Amino acid sequence: DTVYMPDEELLKEYVLNETGKIYTGNKTSIREKPWNFGQFESCVLDVALFILDMTDMSWVVRGNPIPVIRKVSATVNAPDDGGIVAGNWSGDYTGGTSPLSWTGSVPILEEFWASKTPVRFGQCWVFCGVCTTISRALGIPARCITNFESAHDTDGSITIDVHFQANGELDDLSNDDSVWNFHCWNEAWMSRPDLPAGYGGWQAFDSTPQETSD
């Protein structure tokens, strides 16, 4: 099938393994954050199917991991869809839980299942961990990826641009690009019959809500 992975050891790691580590920090101080994915716990599969229902995804295409993963990446975050986790990078986590306090996906998914409202709060590693859990619950091999000194290019120029005003001061209205200490996203294993030969395998997807995709 389209998520077939021939190596049994890799299947154990990327579908069946319920615990792991997500790497955070910076390029000179890399930290391991233990994470309980818990894809076989309590309400996890119910939530996975519920978020697909939220998107009105046709049953006809739910056997295709390509649109399924796109919907997962869209609904794990709250903007636009009323999804699972609300992001917060302000440092003020009043009215919710600090992203640093989460150690696994299950409490987040249990809270969402009970309230059907976004759980506050998450940052990239939280979105990444929840995506891994949802994907594995659906039988799609998935893993967390961390990049350090992570360039965030907002305008598609494939460069990090800094704009200045005529007087030499920074033009803050135009400076949307940035470089983060680190960033976490996901990869899911699948064939890609919609692309030329050789493009199957690990596919990147990112549920951290920064920009609206197409």
From TrEMBL:
This is Transglutaminase-like domain-containing protein. One of its GO terms (molecular function) is protein-glutamine gamma-glutamyltransferase activity. Gene3D superfamilies: Transglutaminase-like. It comes from Candidula unifasciata. Residues 116-209 form the Transglutaminase-like domain. It comes from the Eukaryota. Signal peptide: none annotated. Transmembrane segments: none annotated.
